[in-house]
Design brief:
Helices cover about 65% and strands about 5% of the residues. The chain has about 550 residues and is mostly helical. Strand 1, helix 22 and strand 2 form a beta-alpha-beta unit. The radius of gyration is 25 Å and the shape is globular. The chain starts with 12 loop residues before the first helix and ends with a strand.
Length: about 550
């Protein structure tokens, strides 16, 4: 059972990882939410399937794009090859990376402290991290970066613990993790790795010598992995690719204005605290004394966690535009740090505080379950959606019963409740986001037996969904933003966003509706009217449409 009746808090990381996949899988493995940058990796993976070039990355327009290393593209490509060109395939390895991060967080803590309570609480804190959950449903680099950086952190903490006597496996984990992270995101991984190595070399408590770190087999293999794609691109495309990469890594993202740096830094600090709620609030009592105690107990790890935490805040502050996902690479290390302080300060014995946090999150489950029941127990819902709502009711009853009977389980209840929030959300957002534009448009195109290249003009997110749903057997080409009217006449078939339809001479085209999705501005009104007989008319008047145009 997810919440056993035992009176002691015990965490099995494998069960936690499986629960993570099962509970957020319905939300993240479909387009209930869609992040803008996903299109770059998904479109490039479709292009790889079409042309057999697994190293060069392209946009949906056919232009080259070198802003990120190759590993994220390969994760999407592998999903397409194994599970088909669909939303499940595009995101499955990112979900598994999120679950793997939870497992590595447990391992990191267990290596460092050999205390299953600290390890268990570390995993519970990480499994309920909202930024990790959201990133697990985005086919972009961030969740792969945190997975690989956590692998490197396992190596770092092993070396911090054992110093010169550390087993070589920790050196391998550190270097391989950093190499893979570099192939995911580039310079941020290198910066964190450099700072971590400085802590190993110069901390005064348990130093690691340069000779120990100079492990030639691990260094050579890691360098080969880290630089493989960069060397390949230089050989294939010449040095011009590097300009695009460095512009994204340094030029565009690094801010130079003092007020912007200050604003981003404060925002980063605030979000870093928020992403660990309620745990950060629960350790506040006796925090000062506990910090002194933990510092004396393991100063080298304390310093390592602080250095990485400050580094990620600094990197976030220096970006021209800050996103909460930029904080994710160091979240597992900070989760272990918070769990360590929490256990030492007696957080598991603060039953009243844990009860308040549980009640708050269970109230959210109550609201979401009620909304899900209201929407899905009519003609609108299907069996699976009703099952999700029913499981929400069962979980609510079971969590309340367990929390009252065995309050030692409250930390586990808090974490599973946060996972259940996303599980229930998918039964509500299903009606808003699905079937998405790609599914609808692909059905029409296949029914029309169209095999020629198709031009697309409109929101690139919708175009990417259509491109994915059509698969590698079709060519959907994004038109340029400017002077698209001059280019569009070359194509027999066009998919066009509704707001541009009036720009076309419709006397020479046959027009059919390719997709119809809820207009975001009308979502509250549409939800309130979903069971009304006139809902279809209301949806028709308040939907975002794409049209298929065929030359007569």
């Amino acid at each position: 059972m997810l919440l056993s009746s035992s009176s002691e808090l015990k965490i099995n990381p494998w069960i936690l990882m499986v629960a993570y996949c099962l509970l957020i899988g319905p939300f993240v493995l479909n387009f209930h939410m869609h992040y803008p940058d996903e299109i770059y990796y998904r479109d490039a993976a479709v292009k790889m399937l079409q042309n057999g070039d697994y190293l060069t990355t392209y946009l949906g327009s056919g232009e080259l794009r070198f802003k990120k290393p190759i590993l994220t593209y390969w994760a999407v490509f592998a999903g397409f090859k194994l599970f088909g060109v669909n939303e499940f395939g595009s995101r499955i390895f990112f979900l598994l990376a999120g679950a793997g991060t939870v497992g590595l967080t447990f391992l990191l803590s267990k290596i460092l402290f050999a205390d299953r309570k600290i390890a268990g609480l570390s995993a519970l804190i990480m499994v309920a991290n909202p930024v990790l959950i959201l990133s697990s449903g985005r086919s972009i680099p961030d969740v792969l970066l945190v997975l690989t950086m956590t692998l490197s952190a396992v190596g770092f903490v092993g070396l911090l613990r054992d110093g010169e006597k550390a087993h070589s496996k920790f050196i391998w984990a550190m270097y391989l993790g950093l190499a893979l992270a570099f192939e995911v995101k580039g310079l941020p991984a290198a910066a964190l790795g450099f700072l971590g190595i400085l802590v190993l070399l110069f901390n005064p408590w348990n130093r690691v010598s340069l000779k120990k770190l100079f492990h030639l087999p691990a260094l050579l293999l890691s360098m080969a992995i880290a630089l493989f794609w960069f060397v390949a691109m230089w050989k294939i495309h010449g040095p011009t690719y590097l300009n695009s990469f460095l512009e994204d890594q340094v030029g565009i993202r690094v801010a130079s204005r003092f007020l912007l740096i200050l604003q981003n830094g404060l925002l980063a600090l605030l979000l870093l605290l928020v992403m660990f709620i309620p745990w950060i609030l629960l350790i506040i009592p006796s925090l000062r004394q506990t910090i002194k105690k933990t510092w004396k107990e393991n100063p080298q790890f304390f310093l390592f966690a602080i250095v990485w935490g400050l580094a990620i805040l600094g990197m976030g502050a220096l970006t021209s535009k800050f996103y909460e996902r930029y904080l994710l690479p160091v979240a597992p290390v900070l989760a272990v740090w918070i769990a360590w302080i929490g256990i030492k300060s007696g957080v598991l014995e603060r039953i009243k505080s844990l009860m308040v946090a549980s009640v708050f999150f269970l109230f959210m489950i109550l609201v979401l379950t009620g909304v899900s029941l209201w929407i899905n127990f009519g003609l609108v819902g299907n069996f699976w959606l009703r099952l999700q709502a029913g499981l929400g009711v069962i979980f609510l009853i079971y969590a309340i019963y367990t929390g009252l009977k065995t309050p030692e389980k409250l930390p586990k209840i808090i974490s599973y409740t946060l996972l259940m929030i996303f599980f229930l959300l998918s039964s509500i957002t299903y009606h808003i986001s699905l079937p998405h534009q790609g599914t609808q448009a692909a059905s029409l195109i296949q029914a029309e037996n169209i095999r020629e290249p198709i031009a697309f003009y409109g929101n690139l997110h919708a175009g990417s969904k259509i491109r994915m749903s059509l698969g590698p057997d079709y060519k959907l080409i994004d038109l340029p933003k400017s002077q698209w009217q001059a280019v569009v006449t070359k194509y027999q078939f066009i998919i066009l966003e509704d707001r541009w339809l009036e720009e076309m001479d419709l006397t020479v085209y046959e027009v059919k509706t390719a997709s119809r999705n809820w207009d975001s501005k009308a979502i509250p009104n549409l939800l309130s009217q979903i069971h009304k007989a006139e809902f279809e008319e209301l949806l028709e008047a308040n939907s975002k449409k794409y049209y298929l145009l065929r030359k007569k």
